[in-house]
Amino acid sequence: MSQPSDVAPSDGEDDMAVFQQVLDHLDLAKIPPFASSIYQQGEREAGRTPTCPSCSVLPERFFGSNNILFPLEFNTGEKWVLKIPVNGYPDRFNDMHARVLTAEASTMQLLRRETTIPIPTVFSFSASMDNDLGCPYILMEYIDGKSTSHVWFNEELDDATLERHRIQVLQDLSKIMLQLNKFTFSEAGSPIFDDGNNPIGVGPLRVMDMPAMLEELRTNDVWDTVIQSEIQPASDPKAWMLCMFERHEPPDDKFSQGAHQLLKHFIEWLPWSELAQEPFVLTHPDFNFQNILVSDEGKVCALIDWEGVSTVPRFLGNERYPGWLTRDWDPMNYGYGMEECFVQENSPEELSHYRDIYRDMVKSAIAEAEADADANCIALSKRNLHRHLPVLESLSIAADQPINLPEIVQKLFTEVSKQEGFPEDLELWEVCFGLADDDLEDEQLESVRRGFEKLLQSAQ
């Protein structure tokens, strides 16, 4: 049986300690009759005579960062999953958590109803304690499939078969993700839904509070709790990205201060007059291996784990590359070539190769959709094809994650310095210290700006 989400089976005391309070609150004996009642309700709504299904909670549990999942099995052979948030108990579950759960479940129901994107069916959800379980929950279909990483790095296959399976993954995703273009918004944030699960607006977005977490680490020399906060919706994509960036305190040392300022310059130099004219789009919060379930041959079975779903600027949205194809643009998380690398990685050349393939597939998917889609939407999609999306994504990561910032700035500067006309003797340390000391020559900063603009024009 495959794992139902970005989770791992329990490995004992550590998982139990994190989830102990919600497990103490949840009465496991209530789960089977509750799931059976939801099953019967579905039969009645479908016009069928309700049966008397029996349900059992399978022994294996799955633990994610924010949730515990209980696989369920009915005597009909059907399998469901009960998803309970780690904070799903009194005095801990708050309005922010309720908004996140509602957005996740409602988005999944919306996509099941209005697209052919493979999404687990949500049978029932509750964003409060006021239900028969006494816990907030999502009760959904169990999808049998493998994490994409198992197929992408399958060492048992010959090269030709492995390549065919990888191409299948990318082919499916290019068509799947394009369907999200039908949902556009006037602001960045978390989607809000009416009682019929129709999107009606945008609300605050939950984010990791990295400044608070880093302060916790400095104060207590420990980082064992995820601290979260909310940022308000933004109608201006530049203001949205700068809001992410300005949540963080500037670092103490001169070089890092300069890197911090250089990142802000990179953000300021983006072509905002063009980008600000585009709507915000609905996108998956973590478009990566673990949230894409596939068959052994690479056929996409489901996109799972929509917790934290958001509306974002179009250039960071559903038409971006799958996360594993841009790992070389986030050096802190990219381990290729390192002696102690604990994850499998593609080489930079391979990643560039697959980005080219994926971009061509998206181009073909756009052409296929052109007859039926809105002309303006098609024009915006074609424009995205000519953007350097890895640069834009890396800027977003650096703005949001101060730990990743220095290495991303170094990566960007390295690429900028390769552009035609860039001064051979201008180095990153000189730019960073110059910015920190406020004595960088205008001509030097202008050279960096011109190189950055040339980099943006070289689509990847």
TrEMBL record:
Molecular-function GO terms, alphabetical: kinase activity
Top-level taxon of the source organism: Eukaryota
Domain Aminoglycoside phosphotransferase, first and last residues per copy: 78-309
Coiled coil feature spans: none
UniProt-listed Pfam families: APH (PF01636)
Stored InterPro entries: AGP_Transferase, Aminoglycoside_PTrfase, Kinase-like_dom_sf
Name by which UniProt lists this protein: Kinase-like domain-containing protein
